[in-house]
């Protein structure tokens, strides 16, 4: 047995990450740093696929990490085979619209959460479907793109068209906007 422990600076098995202390960060080689970064990105890029291959049977559950970058994934024949589904097409559950949609191999999905629900075309009864959908923790939902600048621009354009009313004896309590519209009451918008 050697004198070096697993956590010594000379050990190739330095434990790092959110659950391990970063005592020996400066001693990692660039190759190990690159490997750690790659593994971290791969672990974050995990999708759980749940697939029903027959009526009234429990689903097969697989995790996939390669061949896509979240939030977009491409359904492949390998995925379908791993879940025991037909090789060419299936139904997937669209969580946004809450309905099943028919897709073929190669279809690209944009996910709102890291879970995909698939079933064969002939499956009518998906056993325990509600349990699998409700079991997914809310904190793991993927963030969809948010464009605050474009929303702020739209809000500014709308607010330019809204004129605050101040009761004057000259105008009779209403003003006319630059577009020729007359407002008797102010319009307020909340976002």
Main sheet overview: 5 strands, mixed
Structural class: alpha+beta
Low-pLDDT stretches are 1-7, 162-166, 173-179
Residues in helix, %: 10-25%
Counted beta strands: 9
Give the integer mean of the pLDDT values.
74
What's the number of helices? 4
Q: What sort of overall outline do the alpha carbons produce when their principal axes are compared?
A: extended
How much is the radius of gyration in Å?
28 Å
Which band does the percent of strand residues land in? 15-25%
- Give, in spatial order, the strands making up the sheet with the most strands: 2-1-7-4-5
SSE string, helices as H and strands as E: HEEEHEEEEHHEE
Summarize this structure as a short list of keywords or feature phrases:
191 residues; alpha+beta; five-stranded mixed β-sheet; two-stranded antiparallel sheet; extended; disordered N terminus
Can you tell me about this structure?
It is a single chain. With 191 residues, the chain is an alpha+beta fold. Among the domains are: 47-140; 148-183, no CATH class. The chain has helices at residues 30-44, 77-82, 129-135, 148-161; strands spanning 47-52, 60-64, 72-74, 89-94, 99-104, 108-110, 115-119, 175-176, 182-183. It has a five-stranded mixed sheet with strand order 2-1-7-4-5. Strands 3-6 form a two-stranded antiparallel ribbon. It has a two-stranded antiparallel sheet with strand order 8-9. β1 (47-52) and β2 form a beta hairpin. The longest helix has 15 residues, at 30-44. Residues 1-7, 162-166 and 173-179 have low confidence and may be disordered.
């Amino acid at each position: 047995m050697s004198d070096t422990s697993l956590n010594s600076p000379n050990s190739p098995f330095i434990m790092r990450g959110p659950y391990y202390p970063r005592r020996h960060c400066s001693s990692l080689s660039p190759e190990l740093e690159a490997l750690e970064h790659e593994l971290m990105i791969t672990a974050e890029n995990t999708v759980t696929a749940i697939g029903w291959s027959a009526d009234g049977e429990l689903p097969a559950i697989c995790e996939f990490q390669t061949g896509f970058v979240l939030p977009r994934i491409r359904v492949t024949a390998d995925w379908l085979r791993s879940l025991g589904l037909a090789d060419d097409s299936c139904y997937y559950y669209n969580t946004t619209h809450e309905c099943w949609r028919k897709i073929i191999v190669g279809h690209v999905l944009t996910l709102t959460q890291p879970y995909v629900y698939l079933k064969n075309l002939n499956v009518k009864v998906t056993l325990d479907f509600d349990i699998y959908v409700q079991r997914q923790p809310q904190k793991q939902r993927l963030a969809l793109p948010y464009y605050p600048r474009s929303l702020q621009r739209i809000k500014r354009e709308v607010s330019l068209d809204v004129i605050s009313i101040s009761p004057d004896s000259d105008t009779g309590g209403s003003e006319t906007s630059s577009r020729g519209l007359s407002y008797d009451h102010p319009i307020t918008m909340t976002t």
